[in-house]
Amino acid sequence: MKVSRYILSTLKEDPSDAVVLSHRLMMRAGLIKKEAAGMYSYLPMGLKVLKKVMSIVREEMDREGAMECLMPELTNADLWKESGRWNTMGPEMFRIKDRNGMEYSLGPTHEESMTNMVRSIISSYRDLPLNVYQINTKFRDEIRPRFGVIRSKEFIMKDAYSYDINQAGLDESYQSMARAYRNIFSRCGLETIPVQADSGTMGGNASEEFMVASEVGEEVLLLCEGCDYRANREKAAYKRTESSADETPLEMKKVSTPDVKTIEDLEAFFGCSQKRFLKSIVYIINEKPVMVVVPGDREVNEHKVAALFAATEIELANDEVVEKVTGAMVGFAGPVGTVGAEIVFDETVPMMKNAITGANEAHYHLKNVNPGRDFEVSKVADVTSAMEGDTCSVCGGKLYEKKGIEVGHIFKLGDKYTKGMNVSVLDENGKAVTPLMGCYGIGVNRTVAAIVEQNNDERGVIWPKEVTPFQVHFIGIGKKEEQVSEFEEIYSRLMSAGFDVLYDDRKSSPGIKFADADLVGIPVRVTAGKGYFESGRLELKYRNSQDIKELSIDEAMEEIGNFYKK
Ligand code: ATP
Ligand code: MG
Q1: Is the pLDDT score of 259 beyond 90?
Q2: Which residue has the CA at smallest separation from atom 23 of ligand 1?
Q3: Do residue 203 and residue 279 come from a single domain?
Q4: First-residue to last-residue Cα distance in the chain
């Protein structure tokens, strides 16, 4: 491809609205163009990369025996109503009507659609296992589309769904996808960290997210210094320690605390650390009030609480409910005395001594409160988030935090959709059973952004070889007619050797051509300049190195061939 005939729309300056590196570089290298908030076009070079990532995804999915199909992006509302998600998906789902008033959504994900298709195809255990996938556009009305194609309103997802006759089968399908994902990301030149993720009601090791470490990542990961425990914050477990554990219990006292409501107010009033307090928060879970009691220096982890109650979502109770449950205005709740709600205590609470808590009476707190003595510690669970410096629950090592971008997610769904949508097959004994399902997603555009985020330097992108838009960036330096015809000759020899070449045939200065080559980031640059006309030597330079090799055209072609073969 000749640059003079190509859209090489590079920008010298960073676009003002691009705050993360990959977004800036993808815009500057002319891979994407913004059409509106959260909506991007792929220019020819960007599309080449996107297609390469899709091919890798296809090859690795096919290798594991998954079958590609393609479903409509318009999805029927009835299916969503059948699974119950028409109501729970909320405003993130784009909803539309046709001229007859029929309702649809622009598919944000396809569990329902795929399950509907599959249930009309399978009838016996002999039809299973089955793993079907597609690569198509998903639509999500994200609250805050940002970071370019990392979080956009429409994006390309590879979504796969497996159906198995039993748990052992599901485990195997899940493992095969875990394998495919590792291969896909490593071929894309991405270093990913697979972390345990919140699996809602499924529990166990039923969900893994593939994260790319990045300062701009929206996910917080906890990793252990001592072992290979890795989990996202929604899920991460940690071993509890409590500094007050060995104190002698003192006599409980009621203290007047007018208008002292927040943890910060309390800290100032009592002159002690946040750890000393019991924070009591009332939620509505499955339509009932539940009080969650945690140490004052910790946040309630709502994902963990929801999983504990097998709820899809939980919400904070309003002031009225809090008053009804505790008998006091918001800010003075606690577990001592009569509470009109089920209470869940974080695992730390039973270890705490001489704590301070709301008295369930306006403007009063209780000090020297001792769990077990002053209130019954009925239901204990892990309901707080781990933090940097916490103790690993597996090996006792220290946990540390890292930020990450989620590029893929594998998930054991169990019978959530197959049961909800009445899918059944006959087993070997002719008995009707519900197949178990798994779902597996990769954000293709986000993967491209993550590749850029991880492979660059101050001059531009450095493409990993399997996803580079072109294999060779060829530059000719010289404007004379006979020189240009020599360049044409080299270009066609490189092309006939089977390389995908971007030939910069513009009349621009060498400086501009080299700067664009660095920005665009093709792994191999070949230059024909002065040296070529003097001694027939081309200059070969890899994008990730400063060294320049002087080679004859045959030697250069051999070297490039070897580079791409490895
Ligand atoms: P996130 O927590 O980032 O919103 P998610 O949990 O909603 O992600 P999934 O529903 O598991 O994501 O979707 C599978 C994959 O699709 C994600 O791992 C991610 O790579 C990609 N993805 C999700 N939302 C977007 C988006 N708005 N723009 C681009 N890619 C996305
Ligand atoms: Mg999301």
Answers
A1: no
A2: 443
A3: no
A4: 24
Same domain for 283 and 207, yes or no, is no
The answer to whether residue 490 sits within a structural domain is yes
Cα 469 to middle of ligand 2, angstroms: 29
pTM over 0.70: yes
- If asked whether residues 197 and 329 sit together in one domain, one would say no
Q: What is the reported pLDDT for 204?
A: 57
Comparing 261 with 118, the larger pLDDT belongs to: 118
Ligand nearest to the CA of 157: 1
Q: Is the model's pLDDT at 203 over the cut of 80?
A: no
Residues near ligand 1 (Cβ within 6 A): 109, 140, 142, 151-152, 155, 157, 406-409, 441, 443, 445-446
Based on the fold, state whether residues 432 and 377 are members of the same structural domain: no
CA of 63 to the centre of ligand 1 (A): 24
CATH of the domain at 258: 3.90.960.10
- State the DSSP H helix or E strand holding residue 86, giving kind and residue range, or none if neither: helix 85-88
Report the domain count for the chain: 3
Q: Rounded to an integer, what distance in angstroms lies between the CA atom of residue 292 and that of residue 278?
A: 10
Q: Ligand 1, closest atom to CA 109? A: 10
Exposure letters 197-231 (e unless 16+ CB within 10 A, then b): bbbbebeeebbbbbbbbbebbebbbbbbeeeebbb
Show the domain range for 534. Answer: 470-565
Of 452, 485, 513, the domain-final residue: 452
Closest C-alpha among 187, 25, 150 to residue 445: 150
40, 155, 453: residue to mutate for ligand 1 pocket, most atoms within 8 A of CB: 155
Q: Is the pLDDT of residue 405 over 60?
A: yes
- 74 & 107 share domain: yes
Picking from 366, 377, 521, the residue whose alpha carbon sits closest to that of residue 459 is 521
Residues 407 and 507 in one domain: no
425 and 499 inside one domain: no
Query: What CATH number did the domain enclosing 498 receive?
Result: 3.40.50.800
Residues 267-324: tens digit of each pLDDT: 899 999 999 999 999 999 999 999 999 999 999 999 999 989 988 789 999 999 999 9
Closest listed ligand to the CA of 146: 1
CA dist 219 and 26 (Å) reads: 22
State the pLDDT at residue 266: 87
Confidence label for 212 from pLDDT (cuts 50, 70 and 90): very high
The residue whose CB lies within 8 Å of the most ligand 1 atoms, and thus the one to mutate among 199, 409, 413, is 409
pLDDT digits (tens, 9 = 90+) for 223-234: 999 999 999 999
Would you say 210 and 221 are in contact if contact means Cβ atoms under 8 Å apart? no
**Residues whose CB is less than 8 angstroms from the CB of residue 310 and which lie 6 or more positions away in sequence, other chains included:** 200, 201, 286
Question: Residue 92 Cα, ligand 1 centroid: separation in angstroms?
Answer: 12
Residue 389 lies in a domain: no
- Arithmetic mean of pLDDT over the chain: 94
Work out the pLDDT band at 201, boundaries 50, 70, 90.
low
Which ligand places an atom closest to the C-alpha of 108?
1
Q: Which ligand 1 atom minimizes the distance to the CA of 408?
A: 18
Residue 326 has pLDDT above 90, yes or no: yes
Q: How far is the CA of 393 from the centre of ligand 1 (A)?
A: 29
Rounded mean pLDDT of 171-178? 97
Q: Are residues 197 and 337 in the same domain?
A: no
Report the CATH number at residue 207: 3.30.930.10
Nearest listed ligand to the Cα of residue 446: 1
Does residue 35 sit in helix, strand or coil?
Answer: strand
Name the residue with the closest Cα to ligand 1, atom 25: 151
